[in-house]
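Translate structure to sequence.
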């Protein structure tokens, strides 16, 4: 197993294209991060792009857009992921504090490798389930309509993104909404859909750009006082329909594996579980 490091996201995208095309769902986060680096070149400053090769064949990729995690994806054809992970730990020899995200089996194997190399174990943060749409099913009827969010909604969307992160991601220290982050998403081809009921927005669902006929839905957020009324299913279905109209043949999403309401919603509209994912934080405590 050997690794190569890249500085140009376009070159990196082309190198990993065969392994991504073979398993677009498994490589969805890698693909979207690389797309973001291409569309917003300033974000590539300080980014990490690594490809692992078995002989001359790419078998896995690791990409990080600071301050987000290292996204790790390894081809299921490899069988044994251990050589890839051993090489990754060696390749990141100068990194002591990091966060990793990837399929649970790979992340669980990474823990003892990192501990042996650094002297401390990464800690689990978030357990996620990757879902893939089978057939979109009709959600229960709810009041309202869907519309695509735009420039006039940036302040609202920024607040909802921050609220979503506060609820779902540990370690969010900055309580301020970030309108520039929403503008950056728009620049990367992300669509943000709103569901309006009674003349006001009550829910939001994002959808990435369609990459290799695959797109990912998320985040999905419903105002706390409006939850449990079907708005999450409605706005997610609207985002899925629009994404399919944009050319997606495969639609995926992640949700907290332990949060039963969201898992129930996604299953009810036709999503099926594919694989468990895990986020690890490898930060040495004082």
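Result:
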């Amino acid at each position: 197993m050997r690794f190569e490091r890249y500085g140009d996201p376009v070159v990196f995208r082309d190198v990993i294209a065969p392994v991504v095309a073979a398993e677009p769902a498994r490589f969805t986060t890698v693909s979207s991060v690389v797309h973001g680096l291409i569309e917003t070149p300033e974000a590539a400053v300080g980014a990490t792009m690594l490809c692992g090769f078995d002989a001359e064949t790419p078998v896995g990729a690791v990409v990080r857009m600071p301050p987000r995690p290292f996204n790790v994806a390894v081809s299921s054809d490899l069988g044994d992921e251990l050589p890839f992970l051993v090489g990754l730990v060696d390749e990141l020899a100068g990194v002591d504090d990091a966060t990793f995200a990837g399929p649970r089996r790979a992340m669980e194997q990474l823990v003892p490798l990192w501990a042996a190399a650094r002297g401390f174990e990464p800690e689990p943060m978030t357990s996620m389930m990757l879902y893939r749409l089978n057939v979109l099913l009709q959600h229960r009827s709810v009041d309202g309509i869907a519309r695509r969010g735009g420039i006039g909604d940036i302040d609202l969307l920024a607040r909802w993104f921050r609220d979503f992160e506060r609820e779902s991601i540990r370690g969010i220290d900055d309580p301020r909404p970030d309108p520039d982050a929403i503008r950056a998403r728009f620049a990367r081809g992300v669509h943000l859909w709103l569901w309006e009921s009674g003349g006001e927005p009550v829910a939001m669902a994002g959808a990435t750009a369609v990459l290799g006929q695959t797109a990912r839905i998320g985040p999905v957020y419903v105002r706390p006082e409006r939850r449990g009324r079907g708005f999450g299913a409605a706005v997610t279905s609207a985002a899925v329909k629009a994404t399919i109209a944009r050319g997606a043949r495969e639609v995926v999403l992640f949700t907290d594996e332990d949060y039963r309401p969201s898992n129930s919603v996604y299953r009810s509209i036709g999503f099926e579980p594919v694989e468990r994912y895990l986020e690890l934080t490898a930060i040495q405590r004082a």
